[in-house]
Amino acid sequence: MESAEKEEISVEDEAVDKSIFKDCSKIAFYRRQKQLLSKKSTYRALLDSVTTGKDSARFQIINEPAKVPLLAEVCGIEGNIFRLKINEEIPLKPRYEVPDVLTSKLTTVRLTSCPGDTGSLVLASGKGDLKCHITANPFKVDLVSEEEVVMSINSLGQLYFEQLQISPKQRATKKNEEDASIDTTQENQEELGLWEEKFENFVDVKVNGPASIGLDFSLHGFEHLYGIPQHAESHQLKNTSDGDAYRLYNLDVYGYKIHDKMGIYGSVPYLLAHKLGRTLGIFWLNASETLVEIKTEPAVKYTLTQMGPVAAKQKVGSRTDVHWMSESGIIDVFLLTGPTPSDVFKQYSYLTGTQAMPPLFSLGYHQCRWNYEDEQDVKAVDAGFDEHNIPYDVMWLDIEHTEGKRYFTWDKKRFPNPKRMQDLLRNKKRKLVVISDPHIKVDPNYSVYAKAKEQGFFVRNHEGGDFEGVCWPGLSSYLDFTNPKVREWYSSLFAFSVYQGSTDILYIWNDMNEPSVFKGPEQTMQKNAIHHGNWEHRELHNIYGFYQQMATTEGLIQRSKGKERPFVLTRSFFAGSQKYGAVWTGDNTAEWSYLKISIPMLLTLSVTGISFCGADVGGFIGDPEAELLVRWYQAGAYQPFFRGHATMNTKRREPWLFGEEHTRLIREAIRERYTLLPYWYSLFYSAHVASQPVMRPLWVEFPNELETFSVEDEYMLGSALLVHPVTEPKATVVDVFLPGSSEIWYDSKTFAHWKGACTIKIPVTLDAIPVFQRGGSVVPVKTTIGRSTGFMTDSPYGLRVALSTKGSAMGEFYLDDGHSFQYLHQKQFLHRKFSFSSGVLTNSCADERGHYPSKCVVEQILVLGLKKQPSSVTAHSADGSTQPVAFKYHATTSTLNLERLSLNIGADWKVHIQ
Ligand code: NOJ
User: Fold this and answer.
1) Distance separating alpha carbons of residues 15 and 810, to the nearest angstrom
2) Based on the number of CB atoms within 10 Å of its own CB, is 182 exposed (0-12), middle (13-18) or buried (19 or more)?
3) How far apart are CA 8 and CA 619, in angstroms?
4) Strand spans (E) along 276-409
């Protein structure tokens, strides 16, 4: 045991040198595509071969010199989506097609072929306003919407498809020695890395040889692109220069560099393009290492003098070219045709699922540290929150809570009685989250290891043995979550009877699941490790973490016999991870620049389906000064997943350790979060059922306002609140852009108001969080804050009604039991609509299917922007009874306060203001 303990790894081992990660020039398939693509496209579609069936149209594409046919398949999918698949017609062996990401319900729509010019084929979907125009020679696809070409595929001739070949060795045994030696020398060119690729001291031996694919997309009239997380980069995608593509390859990068396109923990190979009047999406379903190049050609106007009178009338529109390249797999790409941002969100979630509805507690504040030392420490920190009157919901335990980093166990000295500790938290209506990583300590006496070993549940190395690599526990093997049997077994480990010391308030954190392998190539697994079905790790690297979270989530659902909603946080993710829980941005640093970049990083996750996302508050690495910590809490309170976390060897930083004034400021920020919980929960419901992101870049809410397209220092929460966190030290003023010329915005503290389409200078002190409510909205809040969300179930509500320039407002409210699936199976929920017009505020039902009795009342209503003092205010119930309402009108701020109301939140009523 002692020697095993010594094998363990310290945090310094993880603090890696950036040079251990590849840049494009070190990636062989990138070099190959660059070298071999310099020539004009040689692909030609054989349109005589086209067959149109119920679900798709298929035809061959031929590469002229090689004459090896590819098979293309075009499908129309319900909701204005096209799918284009290209594979070898008869591959030497099957190529990997990503399973388990698409929701099973995809319905295809029949494509009708319309007459085109000779050498072309036109496929129309639905009513015919969307068409795929396929040109035979050279092969090109134009996506046409209402006679406008919005996207062209392969118009730059970058279709690239490496056909699987038999290896030079096998060929050598077939052919005579002389032939073979010629082939081998040709193919073993190190530069091309066909069968072998070197990086540092690692050699990647490729049994299948080169298998990479690539394709270009030209987006006509588009200059603004977003998506393809995860990068510590701006929200709007930047132009890539040679050798600086966005890399999608899940890696454990401790203290990642910001404004960098290197791959970090997760990948969603999906981007959105937006221009006035249209939003599009491209979802490239491939789980191998992927690179994306972006090149925008701005619009050019030719002037009279330059081009002469005829050309003067021409205006060459802007265009952005996107070049996708993947190491392996097939081309399987979905074109999401919008036309609005909201339509694209729905189309993407139709393919990959919507955000899981989180349990209410998980929207509260989470307190984490690597590590809370022992049960006493947990007890003291928990008590600290109560002493300082700071609400919080979840205590977290990192890897040190286990017996030598053996997940599903407890360190007997530090946590001798985990159930007692959970009882303490349960009594305060709080929860516990513990970590469970995918690496399993090699130790025959550790039952998880022994059982997985016995059943062959680990990823294998290319020699056929279990893959072994080093991670926190020392030598470890890695569960093969791509195997459904492994997932089923792993899920069963969360059963209360199996996971000793676990109770129903314990939830899970999946970390290191890129997977992280210390001392491995780029700190991860060798690409030639072998998974279930004999697939190489290279085929599915980016989806490994997705599968772990999937299995964990399933485990938490099963342990409650399908009754309770799970909560699982993951570091690594892929397209569709939103179905399984929350994601955070990994090992950031306690510096202002990292606070600032958390906003675009989270916006990018949000528009690619992952609404439940957050960044470590305070910064994981290093010691934030008090001012930075306060600003981070203020920003985090308005970000979806709100957790304070810090690495080992940092100074303790519980909210009360920085003096009374800073404690007060942090308390205020956290309390603002709890005040807005009804709004947060309603937004998550809308993400869950209607695919709309919780945190929204301004362009999503104001798609027709060009000035919003590159804004990333502020954002909308739902459609009602604009948040502009302070991310500069010693700030005394911030410039806030208020969009929309027909909008009116209200400062949520002072109630001062401004007309939209302007930038205002807001003076700030350390207690200011610039938040603005949009005129025309109603925001539900809690008027009393409890120690945790559990204490607030019955507490009263308030409504913040901000009037539009026309004197009206609308808002929604969602409520259920906050933890079970009854909202889904029994329709036990309340979905209400608040509308204000002509001086009447109405509470009515937004969804008749839902029923959920609540005793809660609305006790306060605040109306912003009421121009004149009312003479009377009365409340009218559905049974016809009328009550006078006491009110206070403040002429200086044009606000009306209604207090001591007692209007049931779930009942129909009206308040008349005359
Ligand atoms: C890396 C994670 O990113 C970090 O949050 C965690 O504290 C450490 N691993 C230790 O588990």
Assistant:
1) 50
2) exposed
3) 25
4) 278-284, 290-297, 300-301, 315-316, 319-326, 331-336, 366-367, 394-397
Query: Per the omega criterion (within 30 degrees of 0), is the bond before 634 cis?
Result: no
Of 401, 620, 643, the one to substitute when testing ligand 1's pocket (max ligand atoms within 8 A of C-beta) is 620
Describe the strand order of the beta sheet including 439-441 as a list of residue ranges: 439-441, 474-478, 469-471
- DSSP at 557: H
Give the span between the Cα atoms of 731 and 792, in whole angstroms.
34
- Alpha-carbon distance of 715 to 698, in angstroms, equals 5
Residue reference for tokens 């910590």: 629
Would you say 249 and 267 are in contact if contact means Cβ atoms under 8 Å apart? yes
Rounded to the nearest angstrom, the distance between the alpha carbon of 429 and the centre of ligand 1 is: 26
φ/ψ (deg, to 5) at 267: -140, 130
Residue ranges around ligand 1 (CB below 6 Å): 370, 398-399, 435, 511, 571, 586-587, 620, 645
pLDDT score for 6 = 44
pLDDT value at residue 304: 57
Quick one: tokens of 411? 């360190």
- Rounded to two decimals, the pTM is 0.96
CA distance linking residue 649 with residue 600, whole number of Å: 29
Whole-number Å distance, alpha carbon 511 to ligand 1 midpoint, is 7
Q: What is the mean pLDDT of each run of 10 residues along the chain (914 residues)?
A: 46 60 97 82 88 91 83 96 97 97 92 83 87 95 95 96 90 60 52 94 96 98 98 98 95 96 98 98 99 92 55 71 98 98 98 98 98 98 98 98 98 98 98 98 98 98 97 98 98 98 98 98 98 98 99 98 98 98 98 98 98 98 98 98 98 98 98 98 98 98 98 98 98 98 97 98 97 98 98 98 98 98 98 98 98 97 97 96 97 97 98 97
Q: Hey, which residues are catalytic here?
A: 511, 514, 587
CA-CA-CA-CA dihedral for 641, 644, 646, 651, to nearest 10: 170
**Residue to substitute in 434, 512, 572 for testing ligand 1 pocket (most ligand atoms within 8 angstroms of CB):** 512
Which residues on adjacent β-strands are paired with residue 861? 799, 898
Could you write out the DSSP letters of every residue in 804-852? -TTS-EEEEEEE--SSBSHHHHT---EEEEEEEETTEEEEEES-TT---
Please, which residues bridge with residue 416 across strands?
none
Angle, CA 120 vertex, CA 119 and CA 125 arms, to 5°? 165
CA 596 to chain centre: 18
Residue 398 in contact with residue 362, Cβ under 8 Å?
A: no
Q: Which is the closest atom of ligand 1 to the Cα of 571?
A: 3
Q: How many residues does the chain have?
A: 914
Going from the Cα of 16 to the center of ligand 1, the distance in angstroms, rounded, reads: 14
Per DSSP, the three-state class of 506 is strand
Q: Which atom of ligand 1 is nearest to the CA of 435?
A: 11
Q: How far is the CA of 234 from the centre of ligand 1 (A)?
A: 24
C-alpha span between 359 and 353 (Å, rounded): 18
Q: What is the pLDDT of residue 126?
A: 75
Q: Identify the residue whose tokens are 């300082």.
A: 388
Smallest CA-to-CA distance from 494 within 564, 405, 423 is with 564
Q: Collapsing DSSP states into helix, strand and coil, what is residue 708?
A: helix
Show the tokens assigned to 486: 């492994």
CB 694 within 8 A of CB 718: yes
What ligand 1 atom has the least distance to the C-alpha of 437?
11
- 3-state DSSP call for residue 659? coil
Measured in angstroms, how far is the CA atom of residue 690 from the centroid of ligand 1? 33
Omega within 30 of 0 (cis) for the link into 359: no
